[in-house]
Specification:
mainly alpha, Cytochrome p450, two-stranded antiparallel ribbon, 4 strands
Length: 252
């Protein structure tokens, strides 16, 4: 189990969701049945008018109260989405980044040199504050995200009405998938798309103004865009930069 939790973050998230789900016979169910059980000793006794009026009043008050915004199961699933969106994406991308750095030792050395300049030789590990001041590190992460999206498709969309997009008719009810990985291979949008060039994502690079959210034009969308954007985007970016910096520093 420890092996699965460590090497397969998705398993740990699923296990957490399973353990957090309300069990059969839990408080929610017990609360509904408990009243019947405690009232069992009163079987055969006539109920007075006061009891009936009290129950009616309580029922009216309960009906007037607004329903809770989310049920416990909905909250559990939402927490699961947050955890899985972060851990699964991060573990997938971390493998891709390490593979790219192994195949491009000059870029790996450049990251290592910048980390050493930023933190010095005596510091135990790269801190979160250190990571924020390393634009080249972020450029490497963005280059890999752009070239190797965590998922080949984003979450599928559904056409709510008949429409035409780019000369193609999409009927109502059709499922629409976006081939995210193909965007990074479009030579009309990117220069030398098949080469690994992290500097294009530096503040003064060729991709100036391009971001992962798609708010400045959809040139890359590894996490989706707009309302359907991945809820774990910020977590994933932060953790990727932190892990890559420390791994390159320790294992160059």
């Amino acid at each position: 189990i420890l092996f699965l939790l460590f090497f397969f973050p998705f398993f740990s998230s699923s296990l957490l969701l399973f353990l957090s789900l309300p069990k059969k016979g839990s408080d929610d169910v017990g609360g509904r049945t408990g009243g019947r059980q405690s009232g069992g000793s009163g079987c055969g006794k006539s109920r007075g008018a006061g009891d009936t009026a009290g129950e009616q009043k309580r029922s009216a008050e309960a009906a007037a109260r607004p329903p809770p915004p989310h049920s416990p199961i909905e909250i559990n699933k939402l927490c699961f989405d947050f955890l899985n969106a972060d851990t699964d994406t991060t573990s997938t991308m971390l493998r891709w980044i390490m593979a790219k750095l192994v195949k491009n030792p000059s870029i790996q050395s450049k990251i290592h040199d910048k980390i050493t300049v930023k933190t010095g030789d005596e510091k135990v590990e790269v801190s979160e504050e250190d990571v924020h001041g390393m634009p080249y590190l972020r450029a490497v992460v963005l280059e890999v995200l752009w070239k190797h999206s965590p998922g080949h498709f984003v979450l599928p969309q559904k056409a709510m009405e008949d429409m035409e997009v780019g000369g193609y008719r999409i009927p109502m009810g059709a499922t629409v998938n976006f081939m995210v990985a193909e965007i990074s291979r479009d030579e009309q949008e990117w220069a030398k798309p098949m080469e690994f060039i992290p500097k294009r994502f530096l503040p003064n690079g060729d991709s100036k103004g391009v971001d992962v959210t798609g708010n400045k034009g959809i040139h890359m969308m590894p996490f989706g865009v707009k309302r359907r954007i991945c809820v774990g985007l910020n977590f994933a970016m932060h953790h990727l930069e932190y892990f890559v910096a420390n791994m390159v520093r320790e294992f160059k």
